Amino acid sequence: MERLIATNRVIPYPTYVAFFPYYQGRIEHFEQNYPDMPVYCLDNSHNNGGRLVTTDEARQWDYTMDATLQNKLYTIMWTYILSGKMTDDQIYAVQKPERM
Description:
Layout: H1 2-7, H2 13-19, H3 26-33, E1 41-43, E2 51-53, H4 55-59, H5 67-83, H6 88-95
Antiparallel strand pairs: 1-2
């Protein structure tokens, strides 16, 4: 949400929820299909600014999108929307359906 406010770059909530589980196995995919390409993994947990971690650490990340996590993300989104920090266009962008 902070990135959206600062740069107007966002993945709409419905798209993020739908695609999040597909990130599981991403490192293995790159290693198998692009063995000469260096892979760098950044952990941005708690908006920590992107701390560089090893691929072994990144392989442990859980990309499960259960109802609890969806509700937590939805609450965060609405907290920002109600804060008054976002423009109408930003609010639309974060909520818009996958297809227009």
